Amino acid sequence: MRNAVKVGALIATTDNAAAIGEKPQDVVAASDTLTAYLTARVTFLEQLAANAMPLHILLANFSGDAAWARYVSGIEQIFDEIGVDCPQIDGSSESNMPTLQSGLSLTMLGAQQNRTIYERDKLIWYTYGLPLVGNEVLAQPDDVAQLQPIFFAWREEIVQQVWPVGSKGLQVEFTRLFGDQQVKSSLDTKKTAGPCAVILLGVHPEKEHLAEKIFARNFEKLRRTAWL
Length: 228
Description:
6 helices, 2 domains, Phosphoribosyl-aminoimidazole Synthetase, Chain A, domain 2, CATH 3.30.1330.10, five-stranded mixed sheet, alpha+beta, four-stranded antiparallel sheet
């Protein structure tokens, strides 16, 4: 598992957002709904990376009571996008102390799915999306890896492994996945990918042609060789 934690029989994934939202002193100005959507997106992709589907969502809201409904709306958009009922959302809001900047933390608890497991080296690996962060995400939404095709290809086991790329960038994830293999990509491998704007996808070797039809934009095969 990538950044997921096993809690009993459940898989827990968590992501946070701070100083992003609708408060005057936020570093990045964005709607609370969009902020929650992007935070939930990361958390959901980490569930897929662990071959799990969320059953329950816990929201910690540090932006005040008024932000709660907007945050819930953003979370629900994730599940509307993939055509799945949103799990129950529970949590709490900081209402005693007003904050100058927005903040939320999101945890999903999920159940691992019964899927065929392939060794990483047996899969064909691609990048999907472009490394974007902050205002770039808002300015280039079509270049952010889209959830609907990812979920469809994962559910149909065309994609066997989902591997999100976050703030540490592609090169860190290449090392986690491929060890001492040299990996070549046209993307900037050192740039942060923010809210998982880029996803690494391990494609079933016999279904590569299907993946190429599903992911029509910013879908690039990785070239891997051993270091000399």
